[in-house]
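Example 5.3 — ATP-binding cassette domain-containing protein
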Amino acid sequence: MEEPVIVLETQKINAWFGKDQVLFGVSARIPKNRVTAIMGPSGCGKTTFVRTLNRLHLMTPGARSSGTVLLEGTDTSTMDIVDVRKHIGMVFQRPNPFPTMTVYENVLAGYRLTGQHLSREKADQIVEATLNKVGLWTEVQSKLFKAGTSLSGGQQQRLCIARTIAMEPAV
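Solution (predicted structure tokens):
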């Protein structure tokens, strides 16, 4: 059997909130095109670990981390943060559509935030294809220009998934 291609690797990840260390030397190898589950009891650091992958952890005041995150062999600490987040997508437990954006704008938010300009035709294609992938197109095609927050909770969660996968992240 062929060895899987490793798209993301962590080496000895440690994380702190102030003086409290919450991750202790976490190393992992994430294969490409495979589902990887991170499981453990409440409070064990699963979310913190995932947040360290695209440096969201560092947005918390007093938080810091050490160790190495390799994205397709490149140390993410040497990469621009926008590039890191373009390649390592994240969907949170609670839906968080951007409140000032429509459904349509939420799907395309990653392109806007990274300064990528799309033709209207290309944008329309991405929105429809991505919303279809998450099973939301038929439910919201008549609501594309309404606030993303106007959708039901489950629809908002799928909208957030669509927003993440629209950028086709590696992880």
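Remark. The longest helix spans residues 120-133.
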